[in-house]
Amino acid sequence: MCYPGDRLLNVKFVIPESVSCVRLGDGCSVTGQTVAGVGDLNQGPAAPELSLLWRFFCHLPRHFTPTPIIGGFTLNFRSGRLAPMNTLNVPTIDIAGLPDNAAIVRQIGEACEDWGFFQVVNHGVDPELRQRFLGACDEFFHGPGSIKRSVMRTQANPMGFYDQELTKNVRDWKEIFDYGADWRDANPSCQSQWPAQWPQLQVTLRAWFTACETLSLRLMTAIAQALALPPETLLEGFVQGHTSYARLNYYPLCSEPLARDPVSGVEQGHLGISRHTDSGALTVLVQDEVAALQVYRDDSWHLIEPVADGLIINIGDMLQVWSNDRLQAPEHRVLASSTRERFSAPFFLNPANRTVVQPLATDEQHPACYQPINWGEFRRGRAAGDYTDQGEEIQISQFRC
Q1: Is residue 228 part of a domain?
Q2: pLDDT tens by residue, 150-164
Q3: Band of residue 203 on the pLDDT scale cut at 50, 70, 90
Q4: pLDDT, average across residues 218-227
Q5: 199 and 274: one domain?
Q6: Can you tell me whether residue 248 is helix, strand or coil?
Q7: The domain spanning residue 259 has which CATH number?
């Protein structure tokens, strides 16, 4: 018997004969059957493998997606694919039809609710600009140290180069270069710094900023539609003087990357970036082919494999507050490596300093979970904690009602 909100899932997949069980999360009731030697029903028998045909009757929230563990593999119900247990198959969404395609809006809304992460393709960002931008990242970080130090970040100005950033009061294994949109804002809150020796760097990075800004606002419109909110309700904080910025990340080789001790089971070593959530509204990430971004889900860390020519999207703390916890900012981290360096570049869509962020989707059954948050004050507190260890880093949990 199915109840309102239940989901009936029919899943067929092929796994090695040695696998004997499927474990689901709590709250799932399962009936099913195992048929030996069936293989692909369209291609005939595939012995000695087994084909498992399961029917799941689950009394679950509307957007819950169960992930069974199958002998070291996870099954993604949306794609029907098996993947290594440390890989999280976040949805990949073709967004060419935005903003008018209701099916795409629904996919984005479900991805935000289910995962907090998704990848986008056919996003409209020029692939040649992408290659120039990643090339500029390489050129900057492999350039002379004296040039990088000439644009060093300070406590007064968070823009520029830095190699001692903290995340949750822990030193990251990375170098960064941050820049904003101060070239077009009348009264910028901080000033980007540019190496005088590389004038083309500024041209390329500004073009990338504009492309990511355009994409992120398209996605914010879709998210507002998925939340049944007027788009202008979410976008009004980004119309003029918003504090969005872009970052270049370089992860050099690390002699002691994070590893789990085989005896104690304790993780020891360095991370590229420690576990955290993004403080703003939305993040657009471009990276090279080296997979290192991990998302925390179901009590474990999962690696996100980047899709060719795709961009990785995740929601941040402010969208969690605006949605009144309907959307959850995902906790994530970045691995360090002893064998491969890595480049990535997030664009952080942040509202204007004057913006007061508070829950929008509230009623008698869903009262506000957060007190109003002044974004400018919140961001200054987070930036101070990133620059130097000044005690506990500010979090939205401190504003819960």
Answers
A1: yes
A2: 999 998 899 999 999
A3: very high
A4: 96
A5: yes
A6: strand
A7: 2.60.120.330
At position 91, the amino acid (one-letter code) is P
Long-range contacts of 163-171 (CB under 8 A, 24+ apart): 165/386, 165/387, 166/385, 166/386, 166/387, 166/388, 166/389, 167/273, 167/274, 167/275, 167/276, 167/386, 168/274, 168/275, 168/276, 168/393, 169/385, 169/389, 169/391, 169/392, 169/393, 170/271, 170/274
Q: Are 350 and 283 in contact (CB under 8 A)?
A: no
- For residue 39, the enclosing domain spans 7-83
Same domain, 98 and 79: no
Torsion, Cα 377 383 388 392, to 10 degrees, reads: 60
DSSP string covering 161-182: EES--EETTEE-S-EEEEEEST
Centre a 10 Å sphere on the Cβ of residue 3 and count the other Cβ atoms it contains: 9
> How far is residue 154 from each of residues 162, 192, 194, 225, 325, measured CA to CA in Å?
9, 12, 14, 40, 35
Work out whether the CA dihedral 321, 322, 328, 329 comes out positive or negative. Answer: negative
- Better-scored residue on pLDDT, 183 or 58: 183
> Do the domain assignments include residue 88?
no
> Count H helices, E strands: the chain?
7, 24
Continuous segment of H or E residues that includes residue 47? none
The whole model's pTM is what? 0.79
Q: Which of 22, 49, 83 is the last residue of a domain?
A: 83
Give tens-digit pLDDT for 76-92: 333 333 333 344 578 99
